[in-house]
Design goal:
With about 90 residues, this protein is of the alpha+beta class. It contains three helices and four strands, in the order βαββαβα. α1 runs antiparallel to α2.
Length: about 90
């Protein structure tokens, strides 16, 4: 199963929901890079599973979550200052 570099970012008002979303990202093996941003390698199926799980957490709550799948070449060409996450 192909793994894709994945970035998940969110802006959630509710503290409890925000914590549960962070836990979900960690459960899928993503690394926290900012308070509300995670990166890591996920298959397309796991990307979809994670977003379905996050959607359930948000339910009708306010918030926005973005999952961005990055191409391997773009991932290799990224510029990181202050440490790398691989």
């Amino acid at each position: 199963m192909a793994m894709n570099p994945t970035l998940v970012m969110y802006d959630i008002e509710d503290d409890k929901a925000r914590t549960r979303i962070a836990d979900a990202c960690l459960d899928y093996g993503l690394d926290r890079v900012q308070f509300s941003a995670f990166i890591g390698q996920l298959s397309r199926n796991h990307q979809q599973e994670l977003m379905m799980r996050i959607e359930k957490i948000l339910d009708s709550g306010k918030g926005r979550v973005q999952l961005i799948s990055v191409g391997q070449q773009e991932w290799k060409n990224r510029i990181v200052i202050g440490g790398d996450y691989d």
